[in-house]
Structure formats: structure tokens, C-alpha cells
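This part of the workshop introduces the protein records we will be handling. To make this concrete, we reproduce a full record directly below.
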Amino acid sequence: MNAPAGLVMQGGRRQQGVALVVALILLVVATLIGLAASRGTMLQERMSGNTYDRSLAFQRSESALRAAEAAISGNWQIATLNGVDCSPGSVAQCRIVPADAFTGTSANWIDVPDYYNVNNALALGVPQYQIHLLGTGTADSAYGTGDNANIQNYGGNGAPDNVAYYRVTARSSNPQLSGDRAIVVLQATVRRPF
């Protein structure tokens, strides 16, 4: 019942070749898993860096909004603010978002003073804003308290007679100076009595 010697040796040679192929396949699989893990880690690092960069840009845009609000509080005249008169009686046609908000610059963009230039060591350029005068009108209080006969009894002064309405567009920096960094554009509507 013993098998001839030639047959046993032939089967042994086949097994040695299969072990080498299996080892090479496992090595290729392990290499692919390592490359995928490395690629995923690099992607997560880039996403984290972009999120950080956008957060800095958002803070800089908010500081530009505050700078514009401070300028409006100081003087309501649009010519003094270096803004654009977009009120119904003017000839200027103002877009809701300025055409060059994400791409360029114009004389209407105002650099913020140094006091409002937050995170300047971590970002390029200076935050900027534009002011558009939307018009003037009478002020109605937000909750209708101006119509209350007893408002004077509770220490209220009532709503001011006339107010000016402004649209402020702020951006984190001039896109031409920011390179490939994030640009954030914010808008706010400001009401100021005059």
C-alpha cells in the first residue's frame, strides 16, 4: 500500500510553490492596507487644517463687521463712511453681495483699523468691509412698545424718530492677498438713529 517514491516527492514540490505565492499575496494585502491607512490620515490632517483656517477667517470677518458698526455709530453720513448710497433715490444699483467679494478689490472696500485686525499673525491680508446705505425712515420698535401709552412710565424713551439702514458686507481679507487661504464673507444690517 505504499505509494511509489516518485509520487510523494512530486506532491511535496507543489506545496513549496503554493506557500511562496500565498506569502506574496498576504504581503501585497498588508501593503495596500498600510497605504490606505496612511492616505486616510493625510486626508484627515488636511481637513483639520482647512477647518482651522476657516475658523480664523470667520473670526476676522466678524471683526470687520464690528469695525463697520463702530464706524456707523460714529457718523451716519454715507460719504463720511466711504460707503455707497444704494437708497431708492440714488443712481447707484447695488448688488446684494458685491461682485468682487470673493475675487478682487475696489475702492469701496475699507481695511479695518489695527484694533480690529484679529489673528493677523496667523492669516494673510487685512479684514475689509463695505457699507451700503439702504435708505432712511421712521423707526418702529421691534415689539410694538412704541404704541404703548405707558412706555414713558417704565423708563423707556420710545423709538427714535428717524433711522438710517445700512447693509454691511465684511470679508476676512482681500482675495488677491490671501493666496489659497479661506475667505469668509459675512453680512449684517445695521440701523442707526440720526
Remarks:
- Strands lie at 84-85, 110-111, 128-138, 162-171, 185-193.
- The longest strand covers residues 128-138.
- The longest helix spans residues 5-74.
